[in-house]
Specification:
Elements lengths: L3 E5 L5 E5 L12 H9 L1 H11 L7 H19 L17 H9 L12 H22 L3 H8 L9 E7 L8 E10 L6 E5 L1 H6 L6 H15 L3 H9 L6 E3 L1 H9 L1 H6 L3 E3 L12 E7 L12 E2 L1 E7 L2 E2 L2 H9 L3 E5 L2 E5 L1 H21 L1 E2 H9 L18 E5 L1 H11 L19 H16 L3 E3 L7 H15 L7 E5 L4 H11 L5 E3 L7 H5 L3 H4 L5 E5 H4 L3 H5 L1 E7 L11 H6 L3 E8 L8 H11 L7 H14 L6 H7 L3 E2 L6 H4 L5 E8 L3 H18 L4 H20 L1 H5 L10 H15 L4 E5 L2 H15 L4 E3 L5 H13 L5 E5 H4 L10 E4 L6 H8 L11 E8 L3 H11 L4 H4 L4 H5 L4 H8 L3 H4 L4
Length: about 900
Amino acid sequence: MSALAPALSPHGVLSLKPSNDATAWDPARSTRVVRAFERGAGHGLLCLGVDEVGTNLPAALAYWREFGVRYVTALCALPDVSEASTKPAVPSPNKEYLERLAAAAPPMTGAEYLTASILADLWRSLDAACDAELAESKGNVQEFLKSRHAAWNLVGRVHFNLAENRKDEAAPFAFLATYTTRLSAQAKAQHLPLGKALQEYAGAKNRERLLSLLMPVQRAAEQCAWLKTMVDSGEIFHPLRWSPQHALRFLKDASALESAGVVVRMPANWRMNQPARPQVKATIGGNAPAQLGVNALLDFHMEVTLDGETLSAAEIKHLLAQSEGLAFIRGRWVEIDRERLNRMLEQFKAIERRAADDGLSFGEAMRLLAGAHIAGDPATSVPIEADWSQVAAGSWLAQTLAELRQPDGSLRVNPARSLQGTLRPYQQTGVQWLHLLARLGLGACLADDMGLGKTIQVLSLLLLQKERTVGERKPSLLVAPASLLANWAAEISRFGPTLKALVAHPSTMPAEELKHFDRTTALGGTDLIITSYGFLNRVPWLLATPWQLVILDEAQAIKNPGSKQTRAVKQLRADARIALTGTPIENRLGDLWSIFDFLNPGLLGSVKQFSSYVKQLGEGGASNSYGPLRELVRPYVLRRMKTDRSIIADLPDKTEVKAFCSLSRRQAALYQQAVGDFASQLQDADGIERRGLVLALLMRLKQICNHPSQWLGDNAWEEEDSGKFARLRDITEEIASRQEKALIFTQFRETTAPLAAFLGSVFGRDGLVLHGETAVGKRKDLVRRFQEDEDVPFFVLSVKAGGAGLNLTAASHVIHFDRWWNPAVENQATDRAFRIGQTKNVLVHKFVCRGTVEDKIDGMIEAKRQLAGDFLGGGAEAALTEMKDDELLKLVKLDLATAMREE
């Protein structure tokens, strides 16, 4: 059985799925968890919470086990439930707890979908699973839990009660152990002193009941030496007078007592069963810094507070003079721990002294606020103890962070007047957020889902900055994969034609000319330079120029910090930096570090420091261990998803985008050879023979554009030989990371199997294939599997066989790998997903090889879209056969500079 890891689907379905992650779980030693999850998420969570207590599990599974444990603990706390064969619904935790739990999720597939409402749904699934399994056990709750794990041996409810007794100065606390039983006539649970149990269960026949009642106390005594002494001496059965030191000892072991099954009850005025504690409070960023950016220096102020009230120097001195335990001050009991309080005071004083001399950097301040203790940071070299200290943002910093975390709030930036288009509300929010971060000199990661319009948001920002900048301004630099340069140029023409943009790439001008560019003259008045990752390192002036913004498209290209292109990107100088990626960064912490090392260098420490920090998070096992890291990066990441109903409401039902592809060297050579052969044959051809030559050429060029192996028939189908395969990987890797489904259409049956094999390697799972040779009786089953089985990620179809009559609404992406050059036929295929019953927005990707006949015919279709019916009435091929020789050769001729992708 392969390694498994928990995965959450966009619809909140939790399951175990195969994983290549080294931290995934090998289930060979325990198939019961696998079988439980096969039955449903509720049964899986119940199995984790009941059966896997004490088992060593990876962080993601341990996180879900803790959720299951929380449920079983709540079940045990229900009154009068132990001997019942049915149970009432177990109340779900409050929303605040669920939100904290969602924010603390460790890296896992689908972590970005986790919300309080999904956790509440999973709680209800857990409760339903418990009802079903309890009924199957044919026993009561106590027997059911006892049979699964000894730790859940629910045998009675013993309570340890601590109360104040201020009249007794020497012993101002009282302790009493009680138990619950059904002794009243109304069968109501009644608290009795534990000593009464010795009388009630006297005699040999009741010995088992007494032992069962005292078992949680016995378990707790194994963890608490003071309790063992009380049990051995019999003091546990009597009321006791306690000193503050006794009370503090009890207080510190409260969680161990509760874990053993003992109910702990504290004075009513103690919040969360805790007396008040003095806290060392630090306030950062009360005033605006003199400079902005990641190197901004912030002010730091500290004080000691008690329940939010500032303590005087005399009161602090009095607290530190007390012995360990509880002290009565300002009318309340206060817990005293001189060592911890002194440690926090000394640490904060050291930070305050350093801030007064050198200032506190923005990165240090953010780590302090988030509680992310990354090694090497002087400000957080000693972990801040949350129980004894507090770090808060001052007025300026608090307002700034609020605007970053909720950019749709009070911040308002009007769209650029020169923008040729209308921003949807969430896009306007994105522009406001980007504008604020750019103004602050901080890096921004715009991580919207594919199809939500990251491009128009960036162009709107560039137009806005152009309109607002007075006098001389620096140009901005956009770095993108070579295959996307044409997309950006097209989008600028469409949405921002007033932007003066220059594509610095061999596809637009000779490489030698670019290397020796007179940038002083050429950049005058230029708003944006566009280049590729691969070409960036070849042009020294691109690295030497100071830019206003540096924007990375498909920023996952720098996820490998040791690669040549990543090192080149991180040499760039800019006032602010932006990373665009539709690939979730929540699940791959290595990618997160590399992107943030570009955006805000130093925020996450060095790669070695960050790796050490992440390793500690995974080993800690605490429920909120990943919470500080998420809090640290949250202000700089804006992610909107298509599954968000507020976003869906603002989207069109169907979005079509061109996926421009380059040719490999092998494709380009075969293409030119085909055109040369055609030109020679065309001289002597006429009539039907000429029509046949034209149609044969068009078919041959389409096949070459798809993959050389399709034309050559060599069955090699190597990825590096096809620009379309490279682009297909880019798109489908993101679809796979989003756990979405895709339809891939091709007009060639022989292409379906190689496409399916390639996509299987991308998704890590097999998909489905349908073409003209697929038996009619099997097609219904294929459709059903795609619609109902979440483990089927893609469906490859030939347009003739699958382009009509099928309902495939489980897909949210449609990819036209090759084109029919007939919008009606393509739309009919697209409508397999975009039809009645579709609840998701559909994103349509139309592949076009730049500089080829595909590119030129696509341009003709766009130019004559309103007349497409006339122009393509008999299909593009039929229309092209009527062209004159010179027009036809011009159409099929390869524009090599445009077509060749960068190696």
